[in-house]
Specification:
Blueprint (H helix, E strand, L loop, with lengths): L19 H6 L1 H8 L13 E7 L2 E8 L4 E7 L2 H14 L5 E2 L3
Antiparallel strand pairs: 1-2, 2-3, 3-4
Length: about 100
C-alpha cells in the first residue's frame, strides 16, 4: 500500500515492515507506520508512535514525521488508544500540533 497525500492509502509496493494483526485491525495506522512512498511514487518519511502509561491511563504520541506534526491520544487501554489513533487518522479528527523544530 502507498500513502496518498490527501486521502486514504491505496495499494502499491513500498512496505518497510508488515504486521498482519495491525494491518487488519488498524489499517490507517499501519499504513502511516510502514508506507515509504506516496501514491505518486515520491518517497515519504514513515510515521512513528510511542506508547506509555501515566496515572493509570495509556497514552500514545503519534508523530507524522513527513508532515512534521504530532498528536497525543489517551485511553483506558492500549487498544483504546490505538483505536482512537485509527479513528483520528481516518476521520481527520486528531488534534495535530506542528513540530517546533
Amino acid at each position: 500500500m502507498a500513502m496518498r497525500r490527501a486521502d486514504a492509502p491505496v495499494s502499491v509496493a513500498g512496505l518497510q515492515a508488515n504486521d498482519e494483526y495491525l494491518s487488519s485491525e488498524f489499517p490507517a495506522l499501519h499504513s502511516h507506520l510502514v508506507e515509504q512512498v506516496w501514491d505518486d511514487k515520491k518517497p515519504r518519511v514513515t510515521s512513528s508512535i510511542m506508547l506509555q502509561t501515566e496515572g493509570g491511563r495509556w497514552k500514545a504520541w503519534f508523530h507524522d514525521r513527513d508532515a512534521k506534526m504530532s498528536a497525543w491520544v489517551t485511553g483506558e487501554s492500549w487498544s483504546d488508544v490505538l483505536t482512537a489513533v485509527e479513528k483520528g487518522l481516518t476521520t481527520g479528527s486528531l488534534d495535530w500540533r506542528k513540530d517546533k523544530r
